[in-house]
Specification:
The chain has nine helices and five strands, in the order αααββααββαβααα. By secondary structure, it is of the alpha/beta class. Helix 7 runs parallel beside helix 9.
Length: 189
């Protein structure tokens, strides 16, 4: 995502340079039209669209996302999601009755004992297709997803991390969560 934003910035600077160097060119009006079409093309609007659908399928019954995407209820329904686990003390509650929702009110801090929710969230996810989200879909939600994989698939932590990272590159449980996941993995692998 960052690379695409940087590329769009570079393209924008190049376009502006071309534009200002061609002000005296009689073809400027044609160029303005092409510039307008380019700036409104799907390639330049795609990143903002992707931010609204920042969701990743981990297993057939398990998805991960950020908070913003978790409020796109029509998208969640279209994916067959029936339940939501919201992991974040600071996050607003969902304004819908269309999903069964479990709230895990924790901060993204290495001193938080998120492991006390591992078994509870495992049982919840086993019931139906579930979206797990936190604010950004990076640390807290990935920790819950990793704990689920460790127990359900009997994956060692390193394998679970590699698997989820292959699907969602941005995951990164904080150091404290990582240590708790390691302890949890000793129980199931």
């Amino acid at each position: 995502m960052y690379i695409e934003i940087i590329l769009i910035g570079i393209v924008s600077v190049c376009i502006l340079l071309l534009y200002y160097t061609n002000l005296s060119d009689p073809k400027t009006k044609s160029y303005d039209s092409k510039l307008h079409k380019f700036l409104n093309s799907p390639i330049t609007t795609k990143p903002s669209n992707r931010l609204k659908t920042n969701i990743t399928k981990i297993l057939d019954n398990l998805y991960i996302s950020d908070y913003e995407t978790s409020t796109n209820y029509s998208l969640l329904k279209s994916l067959g999601i029936k339940q939501i686990i919201s992991v974040g003390k600071e996050l607003p509650e969902h304004q819908t009755d269309d999903f069964k929702i479990k709230y895990i009110k924790v901060l993204d801090s290495p001193t938080v004992d998120i492991s006390k929710y591992f078994d509870e969230t495992y049982d919840f996810i086993k019931k139906d297709t579930t979206l797990v989200h936190c604010a950004m879909g990076i640390s807290r939600s990935s920790t819950i997803v990793l704990a689920y994989l460790i127990r359900d698939q009997r994956m060692p932590l390193s394998q679970a991390l590699a698997y989820v990272k292959s699907k969602r590159h941005s995951i990164n449980p904080n150091k404290g969560f990582h240590d708790l996941l390691y302890q949890y993995s000793l129980k199931y692998t």
